Give the backbone structure.
Amino acid sequence: MLHTNIITNMNEANILPLQIKNLRITKNGNTLINDITLHIESNEATVIIGPNGAGKSLLLRTAHGLEIPSQGTLSWNTHIPKPQHSWRAYIFQKPVLLRRSVRANLEYVLSLHNINKANYASLINSALEHTGLSQLADRNARVLSGGEQQRLNIARAWVLQPKVILLDEPTAELDPNGTAAIERLIKAIAQQGTKIIMSTHDLGQAHRLANDIVFLHQGKLIEHTPADSFFEQPQSKTAQDFIAGKLLNGD
Amino acid sequence: MTLLVLALNDFSHAFSKALQLIFQLDPALLEIIGLSLRVSLTAVLIASLIGLPLGAALALYKFYGRGLIVALLNAFMGLPPVVVGLVVYLILSRSGPLGVLGLLFTPTAMIIAQVCLITPIIAALTRQTILDANVEYHEQLRALGAKTSRMMKTLLWETRFSLMTGVFAGFGRAIAEVGAVLIVGGNINHATRVMTTAIALETRKGDIELALALGIILIAISLIVTSIVMSARHAAYQYHN
């Protein structure tokens, strides 16, 4: 029931596309994001790939307001009715969980936003159920395994029923089982109408999850193409080399 | 040689008398211990109510003059108690700015002096603890949508076991200091006499039994406090890992 809500909300008013125009980020004289112009649409999942230092994390962080553009703009389509609570959530590679129970971690997130306390229990139970954490609800969050911690991290985003979830290499520290569980979760979230924008190192993962691929290299946008055509016929030489597993210039 | 035997005899005599006083629950002894605990526990409570939020705010908020306050705080951590006593004495004395309140030579004056003495300790230790924790938590809390005021509350709660160490350190310093309470309290019998000032006085008078009994109690209290701190640290370690 909760998730049909998301879908109707999505239809009524959308915060996408995310419009990025001539975005440039400079730190200590180094240009880390170099003149990126990009439209991200409201399909299920957009995956950002590229070698280390390409600017993947920085782009995601800027989209969540954690970095300020040096030049250019990054704007969400915010012509939506005043959001009842956060419509955007961010997932770090390594979650920092609070030293309290799994349930209390979710309660904490809700308490940061203007949400009626009467709805806490149903929102939390739904998030626990979908992330498979119901059995662990009263466990101290800090003693969970790495995979369980990342699932709680995602539950913490999902409990707010956001319209967009940004994920920065969410499976980089997980084993194959943990990775598979997180991928299933991301797919389920996307299918229920929450837009996924994530970065990854893992080309297989990008292939499995993405509708479209944003390929960055050395702070520049090299390609933004549908996932199928990206993997079958990458347009740029850099992307061809990247997919073939070759070292790229400047690596 | 005879002198040493004599001294040892004296000491063991005094020691057994001291134990007697303790186990008989001597009323004079209990009165002094009670006042000591009342003054220092109240001082720790007030100093914590000021020092914990102050330390956390200094860690998280950026404002003009913050560096100066932090420098003063760290300098004040090692303030000599007699100097604190002197300053509080000047403020509370009849011709001082708060002289009209008539607080000098009362337990309230002693509490004020001890609050001045230990608030910097609690605030400085809190600041460091919150600063360290913030390295880990800051981005995450900000990404979740927490404002700075909420971050402050969250971090104080997350680090509660570590913060207890600072609070107990403050208590240890308060209960053991002589200089400040002696100057502003005056060591008046049945009014402002606490363990440390009584020990100083009784030793000078030659009443070693009472002084020694109080000394034993004082050591016992600091042992108890230390073991509480150690088990708090242990609990924190268990909880954090």
